[in-house]
Amino acid sequence: MDRSVMRTIKLSKVFTLLEPGPVVLVTTHDGKRSNVMTISWTMVLDFTPRFAITTGALNYSYRALRRTRECVIAIPTVDLLDIVVGVGTCSGADTDKFAKFGLTALPGKVVNAPLIKECLTNIECRVVEIIRRYDIVVLDAVAAHQSASRKERRTLHAVGDGTFTVDGRRLDRRRQMKGKIPAGV
Amino acid sequence: MDRSVMRTIKLSKVFTLLEPGPVVLVTTHDGKRSNVMTISWTMVLDFTPRFAITTGALNYSYRALRRTRECVIAIPTVDLLDIVVGVGTCSGADTDKFAKFGLTALPGKVVNAPLIKECLTNIECRVVEIIRRYDIVVLDAVAAHQSASRKERRTLHAVGDGTFTVDGRRLDRRRQMKGKIPAGV
Known about the structure:
Two copies of one chain form a homodimer. By secondary structure, chain A is mainly beta. Chain A has four helices and twelve strands, in the order βαββββαβααββββββ. Chain A has helices at residues 15-18, 60-68, 81-88, 97-100; strands spanning 6-8, 24-29, 34-39, 42-46, 50-54, 70-75, 105-106, 115-116, 121-131, 136-147, 156-158, 163-172. In chain A, the strands form three sheets. In chain A, strands 1, 2, 3, 4, 5, 6, 9 and 10 form an eight-stranded antiparallel sheet that branches. A two-stranded antiparallel ribbon of chain A has the order 7-8. In chain A, strands 11-12 form a two-stranded antiparallel ribbon. In chain A, strand 2 (24-29) and strand 3 (34-39) form a beta hairpin. At the A-B interface, strand 4, strand 5, helix 3, strand 11 and strand 12 of A face strand 4, strand 5, helix 3, strand 11 and strand 12 of B. Strand 12 of chain A pairs antiparallel with strand 12 (163-172) of chain B, so a sheet runs across the interface.
């Protein structure tokens, strides 16, 4: 099993994966085993691409993030909703979540945290800084991959009350925004 | 014209307005006049509710944000897409955007930045801190209001390439997430 099921995404386009605000899975590898958490508190910081994610300091994945200073942001689609909810409601402290939820770990190109084969997109990230007073983790994307064959591409948006909104239709304002779209998008 | 067209939202629920990642309009008032910018780089930081938004230091609104330390985050719906794009592609330096786009400013309850009558939701915010090295503005919501009568409630998600995704259907996993949903939501 390798990454050949995925095609490379240019780094200049990667901010467009998180800008719409999808719920994501974040993987870590602490040297012994892989873990994964569900996160919806994410933000683009720059087109370079640089992101911020927020996670509680009590989160089990947080330790691996702090120690290894790397992770993968994997973007699931609507068909994975029950896995997203399952991953978000148990802890890596006592659960092998990859095994429990039937997720397939694929080796990344740059980082040791695994890609998730079942997800639409995987973004390999390095930690730039952790702003402890808000538990904001600043990340630089260093590689990104997208499933070549996946038909379902609608992502999920967590509302925070236990409901999720699914992507609906796409509206095009490229012509009107021409001057505002960065090069390489 | 007053706020009576809107009903108050409990602060404990306000994080659910931004958690799904909608594109927002952010208003400021510099003491002389009101301004508004389009932002899609936002993140929930805490349920209290506390948010982060990111905006370029060159942005005209940034000055008013730094000086007055308050703003309103207004959430537009799909019928306002062309206003969202228009506001995002001109500058308050040379344009009265409220006048140009026919937006109606309503007085806030706590802050001097105006609410936008045409938006679904308006969140009054105070600046907690500006993290200059990333241009992250940390905000605490101090009051929030939602249109009582508005039929259209679907929000927009900016992709960043000039296209926007509209909210599709809503999926319910409240039962499965019961233990994870904070009190008061």
